[in-house]
Amino acid sequence: MITARPALTDRSVRALVAQFLAEDVGRGDLTTLATVSPTARLRGVIVAREELVVAGQYVARAVFAELDEEAVLEPLVTEGEVVRRGTAVARVTGPARPILTGERVALNLLQRLSGIATVTRQYVEAIRGYRAQIVDTRKTTPGLRLLEKYAVTVGGGRNHRLGLDDGVLVKDNHIAAAGSLGRAIEAARTRLAHMHRIEVEVDTLRDLQEALNLGVDAVLLDNMTPEATREAVACVRERSRGGAILVESSGGITLRTVRAYAEAGVDLISVGALTHSAPAVDLGLDLEPTIPVPDDRISQAP
User: Fold this and answer.
1) Rg of the chain over CA atoms, in angstroms?
2) Per-residue buried b or exposed e for 197-234, using 16+ beta carbons within 10 Å of the residue's own CB
3) What per-residue confidence (pLDDT) applies to 292?
4) Separation of alpha carbons 268 and 250, rounded Å
5) From CA 267, how far away is CA 275, in angstroms rounded?
6) Chain-centre distance of CA 31, in angstroms?
7) Which candidate among 57, 210, 225, 291 keeps its CA 20 to 30 Å from the CA of 179?
8) What gap in Å lies between CA 273 and CA 255, rounded to an integer?
């Protein structure tokens, strides 16, 4: 149930950035238009105020470019690089007005995406050396899923479903609506193409046995303890020589407990906290003027 890394195309990023700027700028940046000359220029650097994994430079660059192609963000570090506090991660140069107008949106995106990448890297490092892979969930911010899932991959994680059309995961509410797990699986096999694999969420060993008897392709062990998970993995491996059935753990897994689930032998560990609870990291834009202009050249705001 792992999907490919989401592609951030120029078109998709421009569409998102246009929405973000429309929300923030509205009919115009009154403060900048009223106080800054149209000929003024700025230069500066975006600085990390804490240790973090950098993600989203391409998106931040698109913010300034959307406002003015002469407003340029130049990355100074590699996407996915761990930087220390005080590191200059990007240089910004160009006309003052678009830089000031786009500053907040660009920083918000960099801080959010770098925060996700930073937390993801912590989970990935916590289970290094084990077969398990860290994957995200659909617990993303509406409108930001593509960017947030991209940030997970920058942090070293993998993507679960990008959307509901990206894979089959039969959960407890599907089973309740269908009438039973058997009916849900039978209906799925009847309606799905042969290329679709079926994953089923289970929360007890008894449910796991039922799912295995129905010939599912993957199981999601929901909110099981590490001890129960180890027993479940042994059961699946016995039924699935060669590891044909994927085993995923999910539900309340934290940095403190994630290693225990990896030690239990699962293939995937899905963590909603990568996107729904990752704190934004602290990045700031330090600017200095490069071309001072007289106050009488400032145009009036509408």
Assistant:
1) 24
2) ebbbbbeeeebbebbbeeebebbbbbebebebbbebbe
3) 55
4) 9
5) 20
6) 33
7) 225
8) 10
What three-state secondary structure class fits 129? coil
- The Cα 194–Cα 149 span in angstroms is 27
Q: Which tokens belong to 107? A: 């920083």
**DSSP class per residue in 217-263:** SEEEEES--HHHHHHHHHHHHHHSTTS-SEEEEESS--TTTHHHHHH
**Per-residue DSSP letter, 278:** P
Q: How many CA atoms lie within 13 A of 296 on its CB side?
A: 0
Q: Whole-model pTM?
A: 0.92
Q: What's the CATH number of domain 10-123+280-297, 3.40.50.720, 3.40.1080.10, 3.90.1170.20, 1.10.10.60? A: 3.90.1170.20
Q: Which residue has the higher pLDDT, 4 or 264?
A: 264
Tokens of 206: 């008894």
243-291 pLDDT, tens digit per residue, is 789 999 999 999 999 999 999 999 999 999 999 999 999 999 999 876 5
Domain ranges within the chain, ordered by starting residue = 10-123+280-297, 167-271
Catalytic center residues: 104, 139, 171, 201, 222
- Among left, alpha and beta (phi > 0; psi -120 to 50; other), residue 50 is beta
Contact 59, 80 (CB under 8 A): no
Domain 167-271 has CATH 3.20.20.70: yes
Query: Edge-to-edge, what's the strand order for the sheet holding 168-170?
Result: 133-135, 268-270, 246-250, 218-222, 198-202, 168-170
Hey, do 10-123+280-297 and 167-271 end up sharing a CATH topology, with the first three levels equal?
no
